[in-house]
């Protein structure tokens, strides 16, 4: 059996986690001097806290011992392990998972452990994990399950509009979009992910035009490469997310899910962020 692990920043709904037996290794956040495990604090409570403190939260990866213990339990059950984790540019989680593999292979020399850096986060990571889980449930060999992760990353694009760049800047997560800081002059940044980092896609004059531009990009990719899945993501912006879901359902003709982004990514990007992840049927030349 192939046991699939990911981390809490994939924001895969709990019912899907249970359906595919996906194990979640939670990251933690520190806000107001107190640390919380991401999966043990509600999004509403967390965002109220960071708004009240007016300071971004600091995140930390799972403890190495926790990862080792989680992996070892499945190794003892003779399971193969596949771990797909948040981009290594944003967290030490992938690095620690690789260290856990190194430790366990000294003890269990025949263990089969594969660790993948997704080079993304949120539901772009989530869709890659879900592709692996679906392939595994179909009975695919590990090699093909791993291949499904790579293929999904080449067929997904992540576009989003932050309410402000201050959270990304303060936490050092702004990546290739750093050049935008201080130069927007009331322009709206449309961001994406590229090479594992946040990167500028375009700058737009108004919020509504930025939303329209995101939708336009999706329509263009859909016409060229087909569309398989769409997930609207938001950070404490449920009303805007719901409006966008209804619009994308009509345009894409597929079911559109909503992913509530939790404290680790939400605390680094900031409340008010809205965007979506989509997966095309064919590979895109430049995936987000």
Shape: globular
**Overall mean pLDDT:** 91
The main sheet comes to: 6 strands, mixed
The ordered string of helix (H) and strand (E) elements is EHEEEHEHEHEHHEHEEHEHEHE
How much of the residues is beta strand, in percent? 15-25%
TL;DR?
The chain is an alpha/beta fold and 288 residues long. It has helices at residues 14-20, 43-53, 64-76, 93-107, 122-137, 142-153, 166-170, 207-225, 238-252, 263-269; strands at residues 2-7, 23-25, 28-31, 34-37, 58-60, 80-85, 113-117, 156-161, 188-194, 197-204, 229-234, 256-260, 274-279.
Detailed description of the structure:
This protein is α/β, with parallel strands linked by helices. It folds into 2 domains: 118 residues, 3-Layer(aba) Sandwich (Rossmann fold); 124 residues, Hypothetical Protein Tm841, Chain: A,domain 3 (2-Layer Sandwich), CATH 3.30.1180.10. It is built from 10 helices and 13 strands. The strands form 3 sheets. Strands 10-9-8-13-11-12 form a 6-stranded mixed sheet, sandwiched between helices. The chain has a 4-stranded parallel sheet with strand order 2-1-6-7, sandwiched between helices. Strands 4-3-5 form a 3-stranded antiparallel sheet, covered by helices on one side. Helix 3 packs across helix 4 and helix 5 runs antiparallel to helix 6. About 3% of the residues have low confidence.
């Amino acid at each position: 059996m192939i046991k699939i692990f990911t981390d809490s920043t994939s924001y895969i709904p709990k019912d899907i986690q249970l359906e595919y037996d996906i194990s979640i290794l939670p990251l933690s956040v520190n806000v107001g001097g107190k640390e919380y495990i991401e999966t043990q604090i509600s999004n509403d409570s967390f965002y109220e806290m960071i708004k009240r403190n007016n300071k971004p939260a600091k995140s930390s990866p799972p403890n190495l011992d926790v990862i080792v213990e989680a992996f070892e339990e499945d190794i003892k059950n003779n399971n193969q392990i596949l771990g797909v984790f948040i981009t290594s540019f944003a967290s030490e989680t992938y690095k620690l998972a690789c260290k856990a593999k190194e430790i366990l292979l000294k003890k269990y020399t025949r263990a089969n452990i594969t660790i993948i850096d997704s080079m993304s986060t949120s539901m772009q990571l989530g869709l890659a994990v879900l592709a692996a889980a679906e392939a595994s449930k179909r009975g695919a060999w590990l090699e093909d399950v791993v291949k499904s992760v790579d293929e999904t990353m080449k067929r997904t694009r992540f576009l989003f509009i932050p309410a402000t760049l201050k959270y990304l800047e303060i936490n050092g997560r702004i990546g290739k979009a750093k050049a935008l800081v201080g130069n927007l002059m009331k322009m709206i940044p449309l961001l994406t992910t590229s090479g594992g980092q946040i990167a500028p896609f375009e700058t737009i004059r108004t919020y509504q035009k930025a939303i329209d531009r995101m939708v336009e990009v999706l329509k263009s990719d859909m016409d060229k490469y087909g569309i398989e899945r769409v997930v609207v993501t938001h950070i404490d912006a449920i009303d805007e997310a719901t409006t966008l879901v209804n619009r994308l359902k009509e345009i894409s003709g597929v079911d559109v899910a909503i992913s509530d982004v939790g404290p680790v990514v939400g605390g680094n990007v900031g409340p008010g962020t809205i965007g979506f992840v989509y997966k095309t049927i064919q590979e895109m030349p430049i995936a987000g």
